[in-house]
Input
Amino acid sequence: MSSRTSRISFQLLLGLFIIALGVLYTLQNLGIVYAGDILRYWPILIALYGISRIIQCQTPGQKAWGVFWTLVGSFWFLDRLDVLYFNVWDLWPLILVALGISMIWRPSRGRFPFGTVIDDNSSTINAFALMGGFKRANDSQDFRGGEVTAIMGGCELDFRKAAIQDAEAVLHVVAIMGGIEIWVPENWVVVMTGVPVLGGFEDKTRPIQSETNKKLIVKGYSIMGGVEIKN
Output
């Protein structure tokens, strides 16, 4: 069983970006290309991130932020191509537009978008926090996993009312100078296979008192950040 979602995700874009960097600098060391000539087009990554937010997010407010980053990245990229002149500060009023939309169309059970608390019953989760906080409670009775990314921010996930129907669910996490806190039911077995790089993975769950075959596998990376699991 695969817990990955078919949607475009930030972790997918981040992985592709790291691969591209490795290939690019290898070609530079071989004298084939000069990395600086290509890296100057990095704003396209901002546009791709915005597009991924538009595809992933469910509320108009969250999609508004995706549109904002898509416009910033696209115009900035066109500026690097000398197609048009663009100053990133020219679009700062759109921050007000996106902020207003997110406040008007916020979920009825949610709060301000930088500290969002959303009740969710979907079988997979896709959470992302960049220099901010993200909180989500999931009560799906067929939870299968998903992915969580925190970059200079924090994610708090509550699965205590959720249930796993299959033998296991897989959660892919990436914490870069940020933190991820996960609450799970007391009858879940937690298996952590993450790789800490100047960071940490910590399982703070209490021992299970009865036999169970419900397993949550946590994979990923913690780079100068932390991942904690509690019950």
User: Anything to note?
Assistant: The CA atoms of residues 43 and 162 lie 39 Å apart. The chain has five helices and twelve strands. The chain has a mean pLDDT of 77. The first strand starts at residue 115 and ends at 120.
